[in-house]
Amino acid sequence: MGNSDLKIEKEIEQTDINSLRTDMISINAHQIRTSLSSIKWIIEMFLNEDVGKLSTEQENLMRKAKESNDRALEIVSELLMANKTTDITEKKYCFSEVNISEVIESSIFDFTGEAHARGIEIIFLKQASALPNVRADKEKLRVVIENLLENAIKYSNMHGKIFIATKEESGFVEISVKDTGIGISEEGKGKIFDKFYRDENAQKKEPVGSGIGLFTARKIIENHGGKVWFESKKDEGTTLFLTLPVST
Ligand code: ADP
């Protein structure tokens, strides 16, 4: 083996290690965020006195717990955001048979705290008959579902409702995430899948955002042989749809 071959092999090895490291950070950060979100939710139940009256001392302690939990949530969200900017769509895909309902349910659980804080209800309209498994890279699929859910929450008004539905059609499973939020402007309709594009109304509602969530989601779904599209009406709401091939 020549020197240049060795060098290339080393570079590939290094790329693999880096990509593994990014995946590990992402998966662990997601799990930490899940735990912190449910702690946040529980603390809020105490502070709202949903589970009984608190003494002043108990309330003060709960407020302290809330402050440090919120700080930890912020840090972990920043970590997830920084990790997101590395292009995961280009990384190796590990396809397996995936139960899509499980991925949806655990993603919803991840956002329970965030949705609760904004008074938003997430409803999973689970179909009566079992859905077939899809052929997917589970972690990348999770990133897609979480992007769609995160957007539905971010671009909803207080006390909005989010409906997630699934159905099987012609060898594909279709997933839809519908919100009752701010909608997409006519101008934005042709651009929301472009890298870094953010609609003006979205920027007003949520000043912080990267504009890469939907770009990433579309690339991942297309790399699975599926499609992504949407329907939206300004000030009424948006539904994002995606399809994935059934595992054969
Ligand atoms: P980000 O949310 O970080 O801005 P995304 O790539 O996820 O980036 O979305 C791109 C743009 O598409 C958003 O800035 C917003 O204008 C629009 N958009 C996406 N999802 C929704 C939604 N559910 N409701 C309204 N607008 C949306």
Number of strands: 7
Distance between the termini: 41 Å
Global shape = globular
Order of helices and strands: HHEHHEEHEEHHEE
How are the strands of the biggest sheet laid out side by side?
2-4-5-7-6
Bound molecules: adenosine-5'-diphosphate
User: Major β-sheet, in short?
Assistant: 5 strands, mixed
Strand content: 15-25%
Tally of helical runs: 7
Poorly predicted runs are: none
Helical content class: 40-55%
Give the class from helix and strand content and strand pairing.
alpha+beta
C-alpha Rg, in Å? Answer: 20 Å
Rounded average pLDDT = 88
Structure description:
This protein has helices spanning about 5-45, 55-85, 100-110, 110-115, 140-155, 200-205, 215-225, and strands spanning about 95-100, 120-125, 135, 160-170, 170-180, 230-235, 235-245. The protein has seven helices and seven strands; from the N terminus they run ααβααββαββααββ. A hairpin with a 3-residue loop joins β6 and β7 (about 235-245). It has a five-stranded mixed sheet with strand order 2-4-5-7-6. The protein is globular and about 70 Å long. By secondary structure, the chain is an alpha+beta fold. It binds adenosine-5'-diphosphate (ADP).
